[in-house]
Design goal:
The structure is a single chain. The protein is α/β, with parallel strands linked by helices. It has a single domain, classed as Rossmann fold. Helices cover 33% and strands 22% of the residues. The chain has five helices and five strands, in the order αβααβαββαβ. The strands form two sheets. Strands 1-4-5 form a three-stranded parallel sheet, with helices on both faces. It has a two-stranded antiparallel ribbon with strand order 2-3. Strand 4, helix 5 and strand 5 form a beta-alpha-beta unit. The longest helix is centred in the N-terminal third of the chain and has 12 residues. The radius of gyration is 14 Å and the shape is globular.
Length: 129
């Protein structure tokens, strides 16, 4: 529960204008990671901030990015897939993640999102490792 409580603190610190976006999209967790943690930490911050978000991506189980070398991160397969892609075509999207480490998670997510032809995609991360 202590980790989830941190979402309240981050939400309090988050100051963002969402007027330019049609959809806010959190980086998803795999089913196993969600089962371990019990919540999606990125979605938890958005919920605490009362930001409506949409699930546009799904992910498969993979090793934690923080446990992989940079070479393995760069050469790894893209774990993401698109959900309801037509809903986001020609839309302005904000992709949200909790931590930016090497950028591969965001890169892979953007790679998939661009296949559905949004008008633009910006990225917001809460911290940088």
């Amino acid at each position: 529960m202590g980790d989830y409580a941190l979402s309240e603190v981050l939400a309090e610190l988050l100051d963002i204008d969402l007027q330019g976006y049609d959809a806010v999209i959190p980086i998803p967790l795999s089913e196993n990671r969600f089962g371990e943690r019990g919540y999606n930490q990125t979605a938890a911050v958005l919920e605490q901030k009362r930001i409506v978000y949409k699930e546009a991506l799904a992910t498969t189980d993979r090793a934690r990015q923080s446990e992989l070398s940079k070479v393995l991160r760069v050469n790894g397969e893209n774990p993401f897939s698109v959900l309801n892609g037509s809903e986001f075509r020609d839309r302005r999207l904000l992709l949200v993640d909790d931590v930016y480490t090497t950028g591969m998670t965001v890169h892979h997510a953007l790679e998939k999102l661009y296949t559905i032809s949004p008008s633009s995609v910006d990225v917001l991360t809460f911290s940088k490792a």
